[in-house]
Structure formats: structure tokens, C-alpha cells
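Thread: "does anyone have the structure for this chain?"

Original post by V.I.:
We have the sequence but no experimental structure in hand. Need at least a predicted one for the grant figures.
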Amino acid sequence: MSNSKYRNMLSLLLIALMAASCSSGRKIRSDKTVAYVETETTSCDSIYNYKTLYVKKIDAKVTLGEDSYNAKLTLYYRPGSVLLVSAVNAGFEMIRIGVNQDSTVIINRLDKLVYVLKDSGTGYAPPINFDDIELLLSRPLICDRIPGLSLNDGVAEIDRSVKDVAKRIKYSAGLLVPVKFEFFHKKTGEYIVGEMTGEQIFMIYSNYILKNLEVEVEGGNLEYDRELNVDLTVNRNKYDIIYL
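Reply from O.Q.:
Generated one for you, C-alpha cells below.
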């Protein structure tokens, strides 16, 4: 697989995992009570400015053509700093991903491989970046962007489109929970879209690199301000490290 395709698949995986933690707002349980008030205009008066966000036991189902896979996801997010995602099946961690503003580390425990990706700034811009991901995760950050939000029929929308890439995210106006997002590359026709269904399940659809991909995510247990050690180290004698 080429370096560019691996980067693109990584972006797709990340957006699917991000949606899991932010979209199931009414199903997620928290040890801190935060009151959100539905009003005719978007309200940020009661948004909790957490230091970290930790979500475990997210149910995910990935369908690619006729094949389906189930996993339990864990997500740890420190605003403006780092994002950590872990996927477990039958008690075994299959993959761990760490992302910050300019680099990504992917640990593939099945094949004993580590990929280290740096933003080279060449080629087509990816349809999503760290800032976009944060706008799917961080209500405080969304509140900072209120001047850029438009409100229509109870839905707040932010448009971050750039040359050749359309980027739009829609939120419930009071809760500021993402209900739909669209990332579309105008030159290639490839897309990543997601939307909340009536059953509080978030569905992601894409033809981006992987054709006929569907990702279904729901649930999860949420905890604020938990401090975790972001460990992306491996035994170099057992893993091959590839720099991309």
C-alpha cells in the first residue's frame, strides 16, 4: 500500500472513531453532571471546560462490502494536544493510534508494525485534519467558533470549506452535539459523511479509498478530567518501525 493511501485510510478511520465519542451524547454516561439548555439560539453558558475527555466501551461495527467486524473502542482526548484511540476485539488490543497537530503514530499489534506519519505538506490536502477532528469532539472549542456558526431550524452549522475540499458540520443547537458532517473532495469526488439516526446510532459512509464502507458506532462510558499516560512506545526488538 502506498504512503498516500495509508494516510488517507488513517484519516477515514479517525473520523469514524471520533464520531463515536461525540455523537452518542444521550447514551453516554458521565460522572460529572453538565446541564445543557435548549434555547432558540445556541447557548454555551453551561459548557464544561474539561482538561481531558475519556470514553471507553464504544461499540463499533465496520462493514466493508460483504465483510463485517466488531470492536470495542476507547478514546482519550486532551484538547489542543493529543488524541489516543484503541480498538480491542475479544480482549486483545488490535490497534492503537496517537495523533497530534503534525504527526500520527499507529501501532498495529497484530502484525507487529509501527507507522510514524508526519505532515509533509505535499500532494492533495487530506479531507480532514486535527482541527476538524477537534470540532467533532470539543464543545468548548465549538463555543469559541460561535461567530462562525449559522442557525437554521434548530441546527447549528459550521462551514470550514477550503479550496477543493468541502467541510461542513451540523450540531444540535442546544447540546452542540454533531448530528451530521460532510467532508467532500471536489476534484476526486471522494467523500466521508456521517449522520445520527433516530436510534441514537451514528452512521458513517464513505467511498474514500475503501469503497462501500459503512461504520456504525454507539454507546460508551464518558469520564472527564481523567489523566492517562499516553504510551506509544513498543519493544523495538519485536516491532518493525516504518517512517512515512
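V.I.: this helps a lot. Residues 1-12, 19-42 have pLDDT under 50 and may be disordered.
O.Q.: and The longest strand covers residues 53-64.
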